[in-house]
Amino acid sequence: MNAAITIYVPRDSTALALGADEVVAAIVAEAEKRGQPIKLVRNGSRGMFWLEPLVEVATAAGRIGYGPVEPEDVGKLFDAGFLAGGAHRLALGLVEEIPYLKKQERLTFARVGITDPLSLDDYLAHEGYAGLQRALTMAGAEIVQEVLDSGLRGRGGAAFPTGIKWKTVAATSAAQKYIVCNADEGDSGTFSDRMVMEDDPFMLIEGMTIAALAVGATQGYIYVRSEYPHAIAALDQAISTANRRQYLGENILGSGRSFHLEVRKGAGAYICGEETALLESLEGKRGVVRAKPPLPAIEGLFGKPTVINNVISLASVPIILARGAAFYKNYGMGRSLGTLPMQLAGNIKYGGLVEKAFGVTLRDLLLDFGGGTASGRPIRAVQVGGPLGPYLPESLFDTKLDYEAMAAVGGMLGHGGIVVFDDSVNMASQARYAMHFCAVESCGKCTPCRIGSTRGVEVIDKIVAGQVQQIHLLRDLCDTMINGSLCAMGSMTPLPVLSALDHFPEDFGEVKLN
Questions:
Q1: CB atoms within 10 A of CB 72
Q2: Which of 20, 98, 242, 426 sits 20 to 30 Å CA-CA off 440?
Q3: Cα separation of 443 and 458, whole Å?
Q4: This model's pTM is above 0.85
Q5: Per-position b or e across 207-229, b if 16+ CB within 10 A of its CB
Q6: In what order do the strands lie in the sheet with 391-393?
């Protein structure tokens, strides 16, 4: 009898949306019909979404890829001998050698697409829990210092040094402390958090457990938006496995240390991506921004000291502890150290995830990785950092992607989402969208955000209707929102509006909105 051949088909949401389950059913049926034993592994996505569903076959030479595969392709793939890496029009060669993947520096995403996300043994076989094993031999202050020395900054947008936040919580005396993961990924064009949760959930669990050891917390929560059912299911299963194998719960790995972790589902309010609104929601209240101080690190969840970090921040911790701060900070530039998973979306030919060290240029990402627009037309603008990020023109595409360099040109990195627009875009319409988004998603607590965004939409409508003299009023309104809003929702909404005005003034002439 033939030996079983290992075949990998992703279980990632993107692959599922593109028919991965149907491809799996076709492969299983065809293998049974031909009497060919196979071992099917549902891995994570490699992040090359234009190739999904991407089918990989384990061969003596390595994993050979085929994609994008549709169910009707399966029979001919078997005819072509794809189980041995045979030639076919969908053949991609060794997946690791595909330039899009090979040119990346994958630290946080090193396992994603390679392992079975729900197999703890597979995780352990690929350096999983090496960081926790080391952390269990260290004092909390030593763990905090390691994270400080690595230069890791928050990957959720504010870029606040992670170690400083941990140090504050560690130094605050309390009977109960919490670790909260902000997994309320809601920025347009972002999906790296989702990919971590679906495609390598043990990494997030390990990062949160290390954070708990560092600051003396015993309870943690992962706050996930309800639009991510596959991520929630993967996390719940991984947490159950980690508890059963003593990587979570009481007496972790016999260390005498404890950490309990639960998933909490949010209702999908964008404002709950703001840490204090998230904490309000987590406590069972309406998601409304809190005034600061006190900081969540001192009085956070239920009034207790709380570490609240983004998914990618926490997911970056295991490799820092496993390989040391010096290894991690060897990547990047200036004060932006390590890597950032950047997400290419919008009008882009090769959309997907690219993890690179800080310092790559926007042009490199858009052209070398993204391949230009899907429409084939010139790129006119990109929005970096979500719906509150500025629109950048072609003249700024050579800016290096680090926090300080982006800030110097009026940009922001945020969560690493990059949305591309070709030359058919109307930037006045995009400015209006930014204001309207704020009006819809504002929590309503402060007047500049709640009322300013609504007035902003009205003023932009007047401008595009021909009342160009209203531009000065729009700029004044933006200034009020920037300086008077309680949180980033109101203070950052003017950034895309002002950038559109500054870089694309011609679109605010006699342009009419649909």
A1: 10
A2: 426
A3: 20
A4: yes
A5: bbbbbbbbbbbebbbbbbbebbe
A6: 352-357, 339-346, 417-422, 379-384, 391-393
